[in-house]
Amino acid sequence: MDLTVNEDNLQFICDKLLENEGAANKELDLILSRHCHVEAKLQNISKVLPNLIVIRAEGEKFKDMIAHTNKLAENVSAKVRQLDLARSRVCECQNRVHDILDLQLCSQGVATALHNEDYEQGAAHVHRYLAMDQQLLEQTAEDVSGDHTSITSSLLTLQQAAQQLRAVVTHKFDEAVKSEDLASVERFFKIFPLLGMHTEGLNKFCQYLCTKLQETAQKNLKTALDVKSSDKRAPVIYADTMTLLFEGIARLVEVHQPIIETYYGPGRLLTTIMVLQKECDRQIKKIILEFMRHRNISAKIQMMNEYLRKQSTEKADPKDLDLLLGEITIMHARAELYIRFLRRRINNDLEISTTDEAQRKTLLSEFETFATNSELARGMQELLSAYLSLERYFLEESVNKAVGMDTLDQAQQTSSMLDDVFFIVQKCIRRVISSWSIDGICAVVNMACGILEGEFATRLRNRLRQGYPAGYLDLAQAYNALQSSIQQGRLQTSDTELARLMFLAYLNNADVSIEYVESLSKSLAEEIDAVFPNMQNRDRGKIESCLTGLKGVTSTLRAVVDYGLEQLRVSAVKPRITPWVDAFQSVNHHINEDELLRYETDEPFVQTLVMNLEGLLQAFKSSLTTSNYDALIGILTAEVTARLEKVVLRSSFNRAGGLILDKEIRSLASYLAAATSWSVRDKFARLTQIATVLSVEKVEELADYCGADAIAWRLTPAEVYRIAGLRTDLGPEDIKRLKL
């Protein structure tokens, strides 16, 4: 406290000193109160001090012991390393000794084996010699001065024996091949890898297999050429020949792959197959050449092209191409099956022999490139090109023939060409699916789409363009006359009646064709997925694009159906609907109470109209498909409502007449709704609202019906004013004052 002492602050200073003194006393009391505790702690520390000295001494001893142990461990480790080095040198020495002993044994044994023509034993000695480190043997010979000559002599003997054995085994193998001694061929084939001749042995054995394959293929081809045309296998004899070739190669692979893996190791199958495939290419080329020549493929294609270009009148019968097309698809399918077999075998072999994924993919890619550039692939492309030319002609001519031979059975709703055309289309597409060619499938599907959208749809449209003949004043009259003729058993269809039936049949053809195309598209997608379960994304995109073309066919056929229905509306519906509905104007719509009661039980206009409509619909019900019949009812409903609306707007009413109109419209709507599975209520919406306007009791009620809150109100305010003006019992001034 730094204060100047004077009389004024003397008391303050005294108080401050007293306060400080009190605080100091409290601190002293606290320290004194802890005196006993501190004393006890000090006593405990004094007791522990001797133990600390002992612990320190023990720690020093423990440190020295650890250091000594560490030194011993390092010494032991050094000894162990020396022992391990010595052991490895001993093992190396033992191996050298064993190699020297084996070298001498092999040197002696190989000479004996060669003398006894025991080539397997001699090859085993050479194989043991080749497994030795020759540089190490030469170094050993230099280190062991006493045995230098012996070791060098043994090495020289084995080197000469190896060369001699290689020459002998090669010669013996060639002799066995010439003499067709299969047992000797396999015997010496197994010796090649023992002599370090893996590549040479495999190539020679594959060449031997190619020779046998060539002989068998030529024999099969000669047999095929000698087959008589009356033989039941004659139409597919070249496909059989090609199949025998593929089966022969597959059999060679299955039989000899285990031998190759056992004696040459896994991973050799790709080389084997590539050698065999070259011979396969040569034989395939011969088979396809003979096929093209004996089946006159080029001449047939040329004749078809000239006929299609109108350069010649000579044409081939599509039936004659049916078996030929089937044979080509079999040939292509067998080739695809053969390639799949090779791909699967090579993939399995590489999975066993190669752990590197990148290397395995590279080898598989090498095989795919080899297969793509092979003569087999080029031959299949040539066959596919010929097939597509023949298939196009077959499809077009068969469809034209089916269309030209079209007949109508009056008991059927469609003509004969519908089932015939789609049978042909389905047959061609399923045939090309059996070829297992994605490109072929796409081409034929596109052909089918072009024909259905072109020739077939054009034929339907041209027939419908002629219109529906209306020979009778009333279709009910025509229907009754036809039924009467059938019952009397003397049906004689006139040209007009036949034209009517053909028009309806072609309209049905177009409608049923839509169902056929949709069903065809669905079934094709399922069949293609079954044939190509592991299809690549690129190929799947091609197929989906082609199947999308069938949707275009559906759109074209729907347009044909719409065109035919429009023709039917113009020819058969509208001319009859107009006079029937116009009869509404001849009815008095200013009705008193007595007439209103009579109308409750008797509705002459709507009853007559329904009877006429029933007669019209009955004339078509049995002749049209369900879809076309429903569409006809929709057209008829639209015509009736449109014409009736015009007639109503040219009439005048009182409230009772409006009520009768409302009832008639409801009766008519109920009849038409019951006649079809489609909804017709929407087409009657305007008429129903017109009847509502004409049947109100007061003008003010119209505001509730057609105000801003009205739901689905079809009439505009101007139309409401006009319709309300048809009521003779409503005041014009009241109508004008109405706010809508």
Topology:
Layout: H1 10-33, H2 35-116, H3 119-131, H4 134-143, H5 148-178, H6 182-191, H7 198-226, H8 237-264, H9 269-294, H10 297-308, H11 318-353, H12 357-372, H13 375-404, H14 416-433, H15 438-465, H16 475-487, H17 495-531, H18 537-582, H19 593-601, H20 604-621, H21 626-649, H22 655-675, H23 685-694, H24 701-706, H25 717-724, H26 732-737
Commentary on this structure:
It is found in: Golgi apparatus membrane. It is a peripheral membrane protein. Keywords: Golgi apparatus, Membrane, Protein transport, Transport. Pfam families: COG4_C (PF20662), COG4_m (PF08318), COG4_N (PF20663). The chain is flat, with a radius of gyration of 53 Å. With 740 residues, it is mainly α. The chain is 80% helix and 0% strand. Helix 6 (182-191) packs antiparallel against helix 7 and helix 18 crosses helix 21.
N-to-C SSE series? HHHHHHHHHHHHHHHHHHHHHHHHHH
Low-confidence stretches: 472-478, 488-492
Q: In angstroms, what separates the terminal alpha carbons?
A: 101 Å
Q: Tell me the overall shape.
A: flat
Summed up, the domain count is: 4
Structural class: mainly alpha
Strand content: under 5%
Helix fraction bin: over 70%
What's the overall average pLDDT, rounded? 78
Alpha carbon gyration radius: 53 Å
The biggest beta sheet, please?
A: none
Q: Count the beta strands.
A: 0
* Number of helices, where a helix is a run of at least 4 consecutive DSSP H or I residues: 26
